[in-house]
């Protein structure tokens, strides 16, 4: 089974570990460069993106993470994790940096001002059956995507799921719902990447 890490500096790490295991991955927390080197793919959890960015520097994992993402390691970011995968943040806090990897501009807390937290049914391209239950918690949206990025879902006219190659991002939190289809989609990306590398 593919080994999928969850960046475990801050945020809802445990929920992702459970969802990944349910999607048939070997799931592990990742904090240090040595741990990052051992995974086939990585989830960037929800939480607080400025805190995660600062801790990633502190733990010495920011640069190795950027390098692996540049190399094509599969990554999936939810909410704060989506912000971490954006090439550009519209309204960064001071000291806030991203890993990058998806040619998109995100707006932090975009849904949060009207509505701290809500749920909505979201149709995600590539996921069959019922819509996904989207849990939005002070969620970002994607203002715009570049040519390389594919929009997978919108809510209320705003982009909430994007894929670029092996990088996947959602504004919402599938790890909180017990529906593991988005994690299964990601684990499929990791499996396909491993198969391509062993050719
Ligand atoms: N608003 C948070 C941030 O800017 C994200 C919230 C979340 O991950 N649920 O990082």
From TrEMBL:
Pfam families: SNO. This is Pyridoxal 5'-phosphate synthase subunit PdxT. Its EC number is 4.3.3.6, 3.5.1.2. InterPro entries: Class_I_gatase-like, PdxT/SNO, PdxT/SNO_CS. Keywords: Glutamine amidotransferase, Hydrolase, Lyase, Pyridoxal phosphate, Transferase. Catalyzes the hydrolysis of glutamine to glutamate and ammonia as part of the biosynthesis of pyridoxal 5'-phosphate. The resulting ammonia molecule is channeled to the active site of PdxS. GO terms for cellular component: cytosol; glutaminase complex. One of its GO terms (biological process) is pyridoxine metabolic process. The active site is at 79 (nucleophile), 173 (charge relay system), 175 (charge relay system). L-glutamine binds at residues 47-49, 108, 137-138. It catalyses: L-glutamine + H2O = L-glutamate + NH4(+); aldehydo-D-ribose 5-phosphate + D-glyceraldehyde 3-phosphate + L-glutamine = pyridoxal 5'-phosphate + L-glutamate + phosphate + 3 H2O + H(+). One of its GO terms (molecular function) is pyridoxal 5'-phosphate synthase (glutamine hydrolysing) activity. PANTHER family: PYRIDOXAL 5'-PHOSPHATE SYNTHASE SUBUNIT SNO, PYRIDOXAL 5'-PHOSPHATE SYNTHASE SUBUNIT SNO1-RELATED. Pathway: Cofactor biosynthesis; pyridoxal 5'-phosphate biosynthesis. In the presence of PdxS, forms a dodecamer of heterodimers. Only shows activity in the heterodimer. Belongs to the glutaminase PdxT/SNO family. HAMAP family: PdxT.
